[in-house]
Structure formats: structure tokens, C-alpha cells
Amino acid sequence: MPINASYEFSLAQKKYDEAKSDEERVVALQEMISKAPAHKGAENLRKDLSRKLVSLKSKIEKHANNAKKSGSTINIKKDGAGQVVLVGFANSGKSTFLQTFTNAKPVIASYPYTTTKPEVGILNYGGALIQTIELPAFLEGHDLTSQIYSMIRVSDLVIFIIKDGNMKDLDFLLEIFRKQDVYLKINKPDILISKSEFSGISIINPKNLQLPLDQALDFLKSSGIKNSNIILNQKTSLEDLLLLVNPRAAYVSVICVSMPFSKKLLLSKYKGINCVDFSEKENVRNLIFEKLNKVIIFTKKPGQKLSKNEPLVLNKGETVLDAAKIIHKNIYNNLKSAKVWGSTKYPGQTVSKSYILKNEDVVEFNV
Hints:
Methane Monooxygenase Hydroxylase, Chain G, domain 1, Rossmann fold, 4 domains, seven-stranded mixed β-sheet
């Protein structure tokens, strides 16, 4: 036990000693590092903890990669306006959700683990086709577990499916994801790492550090970072640096849908997560599209009527030029300006190529 160690550090160390899996040890180590004494005498302790953390994460990643190579793959290529995954316990109602909101026809039964492989459907939101995947409920201790989390990590949105607004189930799911380093309620730290032509580590904007500079440098060095510039674009704690060096960390948007088996969900938000009842179908659809951070854009040719059959789907913040690039290379290369109906001050206003389009804008390209 280090000198002047806090009670919180002792609790984290107890969690580490009693951990039954490498994932649990990772969580405990992260807590130990965040609660370790900051004084000079504990420098070797912090370095040792950081080395253990990096070693454990590498071991877990290697095991996941080996399992992926040896087992049958369940990876599904991303398609459409976004990839949404449905996650929940057995018989929580995932298949019912998929059948209701998409064109899929999954098997629905009263016995558990009906879904043994991903079921894929397409949710049509005003012409934006959203790939929606029901994942098996093998979130712990199964041959497919690592592959399921591989899919979750690259998805655009996780929809937790729970029964009757049971927030204990939601809490349990959040804890499982935290152990897998999948972060649903926080954004990726706004910290950039770039290679430096000089030796050592340089921290840009050190005023944003919320821990001693020498402690931050020691931690980054012991995590394997060298000859780099670390650009801090936000107030940065040790927890933020832990996320920065964590190769398994993934950040995915999340919502929660309650399946009303016997009662409706009354909550609208829980621990920062938007929660909606399955019966409020229009709200469910709107929330899904909102969380994907997309906009639907319609295009028309000069002198012709508008058709809404094949809209474009752009990321929020994209421009007229981005839309032109999707339409055709010649339009993109020769674009001079455009007329926009919808978000402009008056209908059909001429705008520049850099004009940021809003949801349901109508665009007419001028080449």
C-alpha cells in the first residue's frame, strides 16, 4: 500500500485483487490510476499501474482478434444512411422492434435466445434508408461476444431495448458496456496526437491540464507515447488521458426504447440517455434519425418539378459542394453556385458552394 493512499484507492485495489476476468481488472486499474496519490513519492506506483493497464488491454485485444479469426464471423458491411444496432437481454422485444420499424421478418418466440445470429432490416425515414441490426443477446461469456462488440464499436447508434421501463436492466447494460470500453454517454476527448520531429512529448495548451504536468508526461510515456505533440482542446483530467491511450475505447450514440409488456415508460431521460416508449412510434423514428446527425436533401433540375423519391443523405454541417460530389463528378468539378429552398431567407435564394444545408432543403445546382 503506498504512503498517503486514499480510501477510494484502497477500494479500487480491492476490486483489482478480487477481479475474476481481465476486463474487470482493466476497470479496477483505471480506477486505481485515477485515485493514485499525485505526489512525487508515488511516481513509480503510477508508472507500474500504467504498464499493467497497457499490457492487459493488449492481451484482451489479442484474444479478441484470435477469436475473430477462429470463429464464424458475424460482421455486416455498413450500408445506407447509418448503421443502428438493437441491444438487449433475451426476450426483451428486439425482434418485435425490428419487425415493426423495418422490412425484416425475424422469428419471434416466447423462449429465450431465439436470435442466434444478427437479423438485418431497413428503416425508411423519409427516403433515408437506415440499416437496423438486431444483435443476439450474447453480451457476456459466449463465443460470439467479441464479434458482437466489434459490430457495436463501429455502429452509428445503439438502441437499448428494455422491458416495461426497467431501469435496472438499463443500468446493467451500461455497466457491461463500460467493462468493454464502449462509451455511450460521453464524447471522445477533444485531444489530438500528432507525430513530432523532435524527441520527447510536447503538450500544447498545458493550461487545460487538470493534473500536474510532470504526472501527465509520466503517464503518457509509460503508455507508450513518444516523439509526439499532444494538443489539448479541452479541460483535460487523468481520466481523459486514460481514454486517449485506450486502444479499445469506442464512442457510440445511444437511445433507450422500452417495450410496454404491461406498462408504459413514463421517463423521457435517464442518466443523460433519451428514453422513449415503443408505443410512441413517431417519436422513436424521429429520435433515431436525430441521433444519427444526418440531414435529408432533395435535388431538382432547372425548370423541372421536385421529386422526393431519391433524396440525398448528408452529415450535419455538410455543404452544397458535398451534395454535388454525391450527385456526379462533373457537377462537383464545374459547380458555380446553387439555389436553395427551405433554410434560406427566401425561396430559391442563390447560395455559394460552401453553404451549409439543413434538413429537407431543396437544391438546384448551377454549373
